[in-house]
Queue: 3 jobs
Job 1
Amino acid sequence: MKRDERRQQIIDLLVENGVVDLEELAKRFAVSKMTIHRDLDELEAGGLLRKVRGGATIEAGMQFESDFRLRERQGSEGKERMALEALELVEPGMTVMVNDGSMAAMLGSMLPRKKPLTVITNNASILEALKFEKGIDLIALGGMYSSKFNGYFGVLAEQNLTSLRADLAFLSSPAVSGNQVFHMDADVIRVKKAMLNAAVKACLLVNHTRFDRVALHVLANLDYFDWVITDQVPEPNVQQQLVDAGIQLTIARSLENT
């Protein structure tokens, strides 16, 4: 098996399982552990995974988030349910902001169902999906493109947001702990904060597996958001923390009930 094919299969295993074991990979591909180490080093250098003791993962860490291309392949059913739940908050004629991320990209693709709308975004997938949609006034924030997050960030995006206002902002996060929402990237967090400041109301979209996690930078307190939507009921300790903080959590309905 060629090197690139082996590395692609490692990525496929990570998308399926979230983690891989170094020894199991060596046996699976009939190569040495040093060869697998080199594969993982190269993939980590490309921002596709995070090496951990004995293997690798694509799960978010304090300062790591996996590449957009991997995240968009994960949990599509849960993302669809959350997107449909979030779509219920949108009314024709609104101005809405949508941030970067694969969850947000799925919501963005559904927005034409509520047109006419004005959509403000830094999400490259949403810009691509909506650029020819009649009834959608599309405002691209501009800035420096990040392939890792498939979005636009930096001073230009932040400055543009200071002169814009929206009825509703949809934001996503890889980490929520207690009453705080986090992200691991400084450029991303600045744009998200600017969106929060530019919107009358805000909705947080967060996968249930991202609760009880922290990342390097604090985005906001949970009570800053008017709605918090997730795909499944989180662990009991997380539920209690949310109750203690007075946070109303919305569990996205099953697709059969939408």
Note: The domain at 3-59 is CATH 1.10.10.10 (Arc Repressor Mutant, subunit A).
Job 2
Amino acid sequence: MSQTVTRALRLLAELGDGERSLDQLAEVLGVHKTTALRLMQSLEDERFVYRDGDFRYHLGAGLFALASLAMEQRGIRRIAAPHLAALNAATGQTVHLAAYEGGEVVYIDKYDSRHKVRMYSRVGLRAGLHNTAVAKVLLADLPLAERRRAVAAIDYTPHTPNTITGPQQLLAELETVVAQGWAQDHAEHETFINCIGAPVRDASGRAVAAVSISVPDMVAPYEQVLELLPQLLETARAISVDAGAP
């Protein structure tokens, strides 16, 4: 049973990257087409996938409904929503909310920029742990021993010339984040995007989420992104207050 569940989840993850044929899905699992077909039929029965007229599979409405329920169960997302919308309206820039779970940082809400240049990010997507402002904010809030373990486990893939490439460099950066109360991604994940992030705290005083503003450099240079910091920090503070932070 566990192997069947694992295979089904792998197929759903594969479809998250786009439509696939049965041959392609069987190849992903390294199984015969009949095995893949049985799995897909079960997923299709639950509306987790659907097959189009060209016999290609897509993620289905049942999965989207389940994802929507999962998002609704995140109290911090609901609390943050009006504040994120206001920040997005005031700045015109892309605003994200992210959370740390299971050793990963995941985007749980997003408000798109009013500009034509859009970011690839989407709700449910993982954020890079060593090259995004939201991840730095959340890693910096971990207890020191846990922070060191998390940093040691990262794959330091260099995405740009500015990407942090090792644990000692990231640990030093996280100390800066702790001291100043916010983080930056200065063209570290994408060469043309700058980002600033700040923690959202609940009644425990711990960071339960991170809010960020991301700006393409063709819209505003890095120095102008830093000018948005007071608005970002005020938004993070307002969400934290509503979440019960002391």
Note: The beta strands are 20-21, 49-51, 56-59, 94-101, 104-111, 126-127, 183-186, 193-201, 207-216.
Job 3
Amino acid sequence: MLVMGEVHTGLLQNSGEIPESTCRDVLQLLSGERVRVSRRPIVYAVSPDLLTGVDCRLPSASQSRIRGAGTVLSRSSITGGRVVQGSSYTRIERSGSDRRQPWSHYLARPGVVEVLGKVKSRDLADGFAEDPPADGLDLGAISARFLDVVQSSPLLDRRAPFKIARTRLRWVAEQGEPAIRFTLHSEQMRTVRLVHTGEFTPAVADLCEDLALHDWLLTALLVIIERARIGGTPGPEAAVKLAPAVDHLLHLWMPSARVDDVLSAYWESLDRRPGFTRQWQSLVDRVRDQLAVHTLAFLREKSGGGAR
């Protein structure tokens, strides 16, 4: 069993948090299909599953020319009315025939790409995690397209409170002894290699989307703090630059809130090392300490001014 996926995460292009009803309308990407919404512990809305047909070269670490045909499952989601994601994945399976089948065959197996010819799972997994071919299966482009559809909704005012780049999390799930490895490649690119004993379920995609969400939150908070130049700019100016973190980000941190209990151990592993929550809490404390210092200084100044 081999499953490949990619998640793109970004700030919703709206001046403020959008309500649940607007989330439903923005994510109504497939007419007649229901947008699913959960309200606890935070509002989360997800579009209906969308299919994209593919017939292309598959990634290969050995640079072998491997062909696959089938469909990719995609969806868009909004968390807390503030953060948007585009997510796509597909399960790679050996075709029962050496010939390409009609599209009706592949449409009957949503989210499955069948490999035509011989292939080694590890070769495909390594190729996808490292650097997929430009002329091959591009799950990132599919995820970006569905995220763009949401961002271009006329229901959004396109006045985001701050600028922040999207992040991309590319993931591979295989069968074997349970393990997970998170790798930070650049400011925008991450990979996750996940091994588990059970059969693949959509809960694995949920886990990777949750990891992508919290990685983006952590990245965004780091960027906001860096832009504030704490210690290098006057206190009031730094406080103004830190305010978006309080208004739009801090309340969204709820790791593993939507992760299946069977897979929660993977989140716990990453919380030990590299320590997502530990770093997040350290940054949150720094933001709140700076705002508290600024508030005390402001009150002291007002009090002193009144005494005169």
Note: Residues 2-170 form one domain.
